[in-house]
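ESCALATION

Customer reports they have been waiting on this structure for their group meeting. Please prioritize. Original submission:
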Amino acid sequence: MADWIQNLMDSMGYFGILFLMIVENVFPPIPSELIMPSAGFAAARGDMNLVVVVLMGTLGSVLGTLPLYYLGRAFGEKRLMEWADKHGKWLTLSGKDIKQADDWFDRHGTKAVLFGRMVPGIRSLLSLPAGMSEMPMVKFLIYSAIGSALWSGALATAGYLLGENYDQVEQYIGPASRIILGVVVIAAVVWFIRRRQAAGRNEA
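Update from on-call: job pushed to the front of the queue and completed.
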């Protein structure tokens, strides 16, 4: 994959970075931990400008958040609450749970988007609850842009400094992203089991 990413950027230049970072947010198996360090290495070779690399990476990352954001907006809190009350019993999920989660995101959503954009494994998924909670578009874009700029800048700079060893960035961050995603999945499973147990006790 590293060779394919590098070849795409060699042929498309800055627009290759833009395209790859948009796709990365929709299709996470193409990791930013490989895209941006590779672009940083291209800047170190003198083929690109590091500042423009970071700007294009940030722009692509922000644009890539929009499909999931609008998907969340399409569902919305009200529709999701109605669905949970009708069909969420097997998940022990109710409209009240959706309301509580939405209220939490209303209070902490800006911090979640800002810092979540720098957390591999979940950075692209945060757009969905942001849309569901109807976070204002301008606020969502601002905090997404700040978090994405910090993330893209750090990765591109690492690739710039590491040179031909830029792929070491993905070797370190890749396992971390899988661990984080695994922790999220385990937490969701534990929550589901506990809710099922609590529901069983209440019925008894």
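Sent to customer with the following note: Residues 54 and 151 are 9 Å apart (CA to CA).
Escalation resolved.
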